[in-house]
């Protein structure tokens, strides 16, 4: 660490402390040459990757844009803000763990779809229809079939009624 007063590279640490959250380290230092004291702060500097759009343009990652995309897909759906924030955090953690300086926007779109699929199937279909730019109803139907977990009930059946067996066991 260079001394800010005389630019000498020889400094000594006289005291080290962490803040209450443990995410900042404060160090008191003394210059060996001029004997002046100064303080440095160490913080984690996580850099989100740049986003490479489909047209090749590059842009900075935008937390608000990501959160806004999920909130738009989940509009009027029974999903809490906390669940949305947790999904955004998982996507950001995944992006950071990749350690790449640039990420294609398509890869982020797939991450968003994966999170939406876990949160709400209707929101997943909404997002997929725009993201994948469906050109016909068959593509839409395919995604709906993909998320259906149980067969649809016949309107004449009662909830919980097994269509294979009626009340008389026949």
Automatic annotation (TrEMBL):
Cofactor: Zn(2+)
Molecular-function GO term, any one: zinc ion binding
Repressor as UniProt keyword: yes
Positions of region (Disordered): 1-21, 150-170
Signal peptide from the UniProt entry: none
Function: Negatively regulates transcription of bacterial ribonucleotide reductase nrd genes and operons by binding to NrdR-boxes.
Identification of the protein by name: Transcriptional repressor NrdR
Organism: Thauera terpenica 58Eu
Lineage, opening ranks: Bacteria, Pseudomonadati, Pseudomonadota, Betaproteobacteria, Rhodocyclales
Encoding gene (name): nrdR
